[in-house]
Amino acid sequence: AQTVLWALWSSADLAEGWRRAALAGGAGGARADRDLDAVLALFRAAETFVDRLPQAPARAFLDYLQSQDLPADSLAARAASRDSVAVLTPAGAAGREWDVVVVAGVQDGTWPDLRLRDSLLGSQSLADLLAGRSPDAAGAGAQARAAVLADELRSFAVATSRARGTLLVTAVADADEQPSAFVDLVQRPGDDPADEERDPRLVAAPVPMDLRGLVGALRSQLEGSLAAPGSAGSGPAAPDRGAAQLLARLAAEGVAGADPREWYGLADESSATALWAPDELVPVSPSKAETVSTCALRWALEAAGGTAADGTSQTLGTLVHSIAQDFPAGTEGELLEELDRRWRELGLRDGWPAVAERRRAERMIGRLAEYLKGAGEAVLREAPFSLELDRALLRGVVDRLEDVGEGAVRVVDLKTGKRAPSATETAQNPQLGAYQLAVDGGAFEGLAPGTRSAGAQLVFVGDISKGPTVRAQSGLGPETDSPTWARTMIEGVAVTMASSAFTACLNDLCPMCPVRTSCPLHGEGRQVVE
Ligand code: SF4
């Protein structure tokens, strides 16, 4: 298409005439400018088309052009037109100058944009390493980030040095957005000693001239009047009646956001009823006992559906658990063979993510086999139980109960995650404590009456260390004078679950919490209550 187009253009013999007309100016010059722009855009479109479809015939290019309802965006150079502004990227502005230049939207997180521009597999880092440009892989991330910052600084310098007369740099500072540190490079807040009190660069943005802007301004006016101290300096303040009346009128006309019932954080409680009546047993699962003990709000929101769908990690964990159940004393060969046979159950597509996942699964199986080699005989596997306490109905399924002799068993809970608790944390791990309580309470069918729990352990087969990582908990011991810590903990969990209010408690797992966007202790979730 490009060759045909060039032949047509050359034979038309228009180039020199249009060039002269454009340089001469006036109405004819403006028309020649537009014509030349159109020809450049046409060549640019042909170039892009040929890049995409190198084998397509010239006729296909015509069909492509005719099928367009809107002209495609073109990067072709254009003649400057009068009464207009050029909207450009910093790279597009390089080498040119204007009397007035506006560098807009210099926001924190946008400029500099410090995301690494490398490919998914980091091929540039590998190339740098092999070429000796990067001494080691460990510092490659920091170096790459420093290089990105330097690039961003260069592009900012290009953008801000294009003005012959006036440079205006703009950014927004409000509850959601902050100006970039680059703004300080143009003018620092304390540059003018006369303005120590306030940042002289800040100017109030006018309210947008639309209904949304009007509703926002009226709401802010009304809330401001309510927050101000009353006329006597105390007591409720008088609302701004004018703002309230206007909002009421807008709400009556159906304008979005004008009705206070749509405002976040103002709705009344929908219910203060406890989740379970005082005489009801509260079903407690050992796996959730830890969540309830750590953060009751997270448990409540997750129980109401605020959980993420299972990812590949969870389904792989389920598969490893299932293999461990079917082969309680399996060798590595047997376990790997079973993994191979059932691998398709994960439904992973072919490709490198599936290969990486398969290697991870094989490492897990290797650690599981190593654990099973020295483990006691499994008397029960994936064993369900149910134990009625005062307030709690403790129900669950334990991975494995191993015979340790003398009428006792050891509880084993298999884990495929990558984070193991410390020995101190494990000493009162709620899940293990609940399982031990169930053993001591005779809640397992298939265990002889009077069987005791001699202790419990978490066995991690995920990528934590080379071999399996084991965290042990001592046996609960007899409940002669007072209840064991596990019983007290489970009863406490049941009382918390049966409440009508659930408190958020900051903890180490907050960064991974799936309901963080509804948590009042974090910025992302404060909208729910503020
Ligand atoms: S973010 Fe932390 S405090 Fe908030 S609900 Fe989740 S676990 Fe609880």
UniProtKB/TrEMBL annotation:
<keyword id="KW-0234">DNA repair</keyword>
<keyword id="KW-0227">DNA damage</keyword>
<dbReference type="InterPro" id="IPR011604">
    <property type="entry name" value="PDDEXK-like_dom_sf"/>
</dbReference>
<keyword id="KW-0378">Hydrolase</keyword>
<dbReference type="Pfam" id="PF12705">
    <property type="entry name" value="PDDEXK_1"/>
</dbReference>
<keyword id="KW-0269">Exonuclease</keyword>
<dbReference type="GO" id="GO:0005524">
    <property type="term" value="F:ATP binding"/>
</dbReference>
<dbReference type="GO" id="GO:0003677">
    <property type="term" value="F:DNA binding"/>
</dbReference>
<keyword id="KW-0347">Helicase</keyword>
<keyword id="KW-0238">DNA-binding</keyword>
<dbReference type="GO" id="GO:0004386">
    <property type="term" value="F:helicase activity"/>
</dbReference>
<keyword id="KW-0547">Nucleotide-binding</keyword>
<dbReference type="InterPro" id="IPR027417">
    <property type="entry name" value="P-loop_NTPase"/>
</dbReference>
<dbReference type="GO" id="GO:0006281">
    <property type="term" value="P:DNA repair"/>
</dbReference>
<dbReference type="GO" id="GO:0004527">
    <property type="term" value="F:exonuclease activity"/>
</dbReference>
<feature type="domain" description="UvrD-like helicase C-terminal">
    <location>
        <begin position="36"/>
        <end position="171"/>
    </location>
</feature>
<dbReference type="InterPro" id="IPR038726">
    <property type="entry name" value="PDDEXK_AddAB-type"/>
</dbReference>
<keyword id="KW-0067">ATP-binding</keyword>
<protein>
    <submittedName>
        <fullName>PD-(D/E)XK nuclease family protein</fullName>
    </submittedName>
</protein>
<keyword id="KW-0540">Nuclease</keyword>
<dbReference type="Pfam" id="PF13361">
    <property type="entry name" value="UvrD_C"/>
</dbReference>
<feature type="domain" description="PD-(D/E)XK endonuclease-like">
    <location>
        <begin position="284"/>
        <end position="520"/>
    </location>
</feature>
<dbReference type="InterPro" id="IPR014017">
    <property type="entry name" value="DNA_helicase_UvrD-like_C"/>
</dbReference>
